Amino acid sequence: MQFISSYPWYFILLCLIAGGVFAGLLYFRDKKNTDRSKGILALLATLRFLSVSIISLLLLEVFVKHLINETEKPIIIIAQDNSASIVAGKDSTDLKVNYIKALNDFKNAVKEKYEVKMYQFDTETQPTETFDFKGKETDISKLVNDIENNYSNSNIGAVILATDGIYNKGTNPFYSVQKINAPFYTIALGDTTPIKDVLIQSVNHNQIAYLGNTFPVEVLVNATDLKGSDVTLTLSNNGTVLKSETVVLNSEAFSKTYSFTVDALKTGIQKYTVSLSTLPEDKNIYNNSQSFIIDVIDNRQKVLILASAPHPDITAIKESISSTQTYEVEVGLINDFTKPLKPYSLIILHQTNSLPPRIINEVKANNQSIWYIGLNPPTGLFSFGMPNSGGRFNDVEPSVNTNFSLFSISNELSTYYKEFPAVKCNFGNINANNGSYTLLNQRIGVVNTDNPLFLFTETNGVKLAGFFGDGLWRWKLRDFLDHDNHNLFNELVNKTVQYLSVKADKSFFRVFTKKIINENEALDFTAEVYNQSYELITEPDVLLTLKDSKGKMYNYTFSKKQTMYSLSAGLFPAGEYSYEAKVKVGDKLFTKSGIVVVKEIVAEKINTLANHQLLFQIAKESGGKLFYKNQLKELQKEILESQTIKSITYSHKQLTDLVNLKWIFFIILFLLSVEWFIRKRNGGI
Question: Does an H or E element contain 426, and which?
Answer without folding.
Answer: strand 423-426
